[in-house]
Fold:
Amino acid sequence: MKLTRPDQNWLRAFMFTIFGTTALVISYFPLYYKELGFTSSQIGYLYAVGPLISMFSNMIWSLASDKYQTLKKIMIILIAGQLFMLLAMTGASGFTPVFLIITIFYFFYYPVYPLADTMAIQTAQRYGRSFTVIRVFGSLGYAFFALGIGYVISVAGASWTLGIGIGIGIAALLSSLLLRDGVMKRSESMGMSDLLKVLRSKEILWFFACVFCLALAHRMNEAFLTLTLSQLGAGEGLIGWSLMISAISEIPIFYLLSKYGDKIKELPLLGFASLMYALRFLLMGLANDPISVLAIQTLHSVTFGVFYVTAVRYITRLVPGRYRATGIALFTVFWSSASGLISGTFGGMMFETAGRAYFYYLATVLAFVAALGFLGRHLFAKPMDTFVE
Structure:
């Protein structure tokens, strides 16, 4: 009897769609804010509030999923909440109401992705498949929507941003109704004693310091890439191509590292990725036309693609199994939440006052410092001093 897998296919469709929302929020919301007349500093604040909210929203919804033993129902609530807030934003134009609405929107937006990844892992295990064969549809969705949204906005204008988001949200909600439910596996909570045990290790402290330094540079670029392209005269269609190139470029790197990455030590790979980040941001500071930025985007493969997979592998090896959830949680805080908050707030002010070139030169310095940290630890450190359980 042939085994059908409709739940796997619907989950792929769901991943494809929700990453369309990611493309819209990260890459085209800044253009919408610009259309409303907001300054670069105000746009930075609107970007920074998301990581701030994510610091506790992920935990709240994960605990709810754990308590009620459901992933599907929680994700339906989250997608519905996003839709409601996008509808509310259509009637807002001032900075204060937009700030309040987008804050609530982020409360529903960020937790979808770790919950979707959890469901993808469970579904892959159910069929004896690799998690990557499901998760890769997220990258494909990001690439497709980044390009498609760019062309729609280039024709219809940035005022259509919210309408596009509502359309994507409806598609995500419909596909979520067809998912096969999964349950969150109960994991150890990250108490203060666990946190202190993790932070006893100089190896881990050094790693998180380097990650945070690089994350600041990465998030600065993420928040202001579309505004940079707009400053250089790029239309929304070209912006879409830029985002698609970066998303597509990471896919083969993910596959290669999953197959061959274990043969290379993590710290040299992390140092290499950081150096490539420094080169990428230096070129961004020197770029004077949007076509140059388009070419620079191909470096996303050897920057984010190499770094993210290797960093997750390193922290998984570095932290003993009992505290692995704590280690991953801390990595997420440094790479995404805290760095996004600081880079959005202060990056916006620097982009506005110092200018685009110096903004990217600062990102270059941060990435280079991270490279020195990773490579220095590899070359000169004593054998790994993990904490004692």
